[in-house]
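S., here's the first fold you wanted:
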Amino acid sequence: MLQMQPKRNSKDKQRPCIGLALAGGGPLGIIYEIGAILALEEALEGIEFNDLDVYVGVSAGAVVAAGLVNGFSAAKLCHVFIRTESEAFPLDPQHFLRPAFHHYLKAVESIPELLLEALWRFANNPQDRSLHGVLSTLGRALPAGVLSNDYIEEFGNRLFNSRGRTNDFRKLKRKLFVVATNLDTGEVVKFGSRGNDHIPISQAVQASAALPGVYPPVEIEGRYYVDGVLRKALHASTALDEGAELLFCINPIVPFNASLAKPDERKSYEFLVEGGLPVVLSQAFHALIYSRIKNSIAQYKTQYPDKDVILFEPNAGDAKIFYTNAFSFTNRRRVCEHAYQTTRHDLLARSDLLKPLFARYGLTLRTDILADNSLHFDSNLRIPLSVTKQAKLQNKVTNKLSDTLDDLQAWLRLHRPIA
């Protein structure tokens, strides 16, 4: 979706306010968004996506947004989350899939008491002697989440407390809003806004990513929070309300249209229902999220007529993304490459419209780079405008130095003398 703004006065030298809004999507969303940002940063001159004015992140998008605003380049995030080669921030993807044993134990401990309660109700309520009534009582023994989300907070805390970064919203140089939902009221909570900016960023990210049923709600100051996607999928209006004139939006989740998929990528079955419950639920979830985004984007045309909002997402026939497990890191390189190439193709297809729009903000869209089919997401992570051997060598040295400094900072923190 694209909105056009009246031409900016050429005499106005003030830096335009540019923002980034990132939707959710599980680990798959993290990977897709990094790949898309790598493509955008490579093709656009005059912009660094870790030096924008305002960031909004929901769920997986909160992970990426919090990293960018903290000074991590898209290349560095790729190094950590996709290539998993960072020595300073070693990432074990399996830790994101650890069972929530603590909640399992609490559930088991509650069974005897709940069973007695169910039997008492069954015996003392002749009008409600149904199996459903008993099961509904025992249902409270089910854990609040299948997987533990402690690692999300632990890893985020390590990232944001590293060299030159912060885990405090108030100390950031740019605005960051991490969106979650209050489980008991259903209200949207924007961590990073006044009154909610004292909460550690890592804890806010953990709350925003607490997808109900998968991860347990996160308790913060006596309140319980879950995924911010329950109310809105993108929350782009938060950035627009904060003054963003040009807003980049990335959404990894779209419903699948099998009729638009490439023949070699289609499944053997004709209808999605043949894929069973996981496929049906996935399509329903994608459709629900996508409808919210489309409705919100459509409203921005009238609510923010002087703003430019650009949305990047997979196409409806993208079987590779739809059939990829949203909670798997196994295919992270393939997904990142796919997101990178999809975004490049989108930029090139819309270049006639986007070139003059970007120019009004002092940005240049490099169609020559977009037309270069030899490029991949990791062709040149540090210096995207050059593909020479010398640049690639410099790139490796720069990345190694950056990682070494992070290693040193981590070592010093670990061996700091006790006062």
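And the second, which I think is the more interesting of the pair:
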Amino acid sequence: MPTAPCFYVNDGDREGSQIDLEHFPFSIGRARECDFVIDSPDVSRLHAQFEFDHQQVYIMDLGSTNGTYLNNHPLEPNKQARLRAGDEINIGNVALLLFDDPATTAQIAEVKLPTPGLRLDEMAAQVYIKGERLDPPLSPSQFTLLGLLVHNEDAVVTREDVRDYVWGADVDVNDQTIDALVSRLRKRLTEADEEHDYIVTRRGFGLMFRNRRDN
């Protein structure tokens, strides 16, 4: 098991490789002096880099030609974006990386919820509804949003809370993008359990998670 922040290569010749982030900044690019070299003309010489600040790991695009994407959202050049375990990083549509931070993940206890309803396994990034694992798994952004709602069960979560937790406070995300994410997550949960609304909208306030209760 890794103990330092790391990422896994999800495609290409090095698919399945684990790359430990043992120092920062950790650079990615085509140049031979980069810490992680991607030999492709679609990747800039200095494409992106991992950074560490206040016990958090960040990714920053270095003004690359073809961009860096975090969970399918393009990063603004030369601006940090905070990473969470399970985040997916796309380097110029050439390399797909999956970020993991065991030290952070280990601090988050598995959320134990009543078995008739929904349960999160945060270590495995899996969701169980009525004892059945949700398949296919939620996307990283959907899972992050659900985690926020579950940890604030029966309390209102505002749009600002969602924006800061899912994308980061420094990322400009409009209401339509938030609504689309909520809609996709609600649809996945409804497909698994049509008889219960896990996500309740409090108009003018925000969202609330309500799990099934034992009768």
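Why I say that: Confidence is low (pLDDT under 50) at residues 106-114. Residues 201 and 207 are 5 Å apart (CA to CA).

Talk tomorrow,
H.
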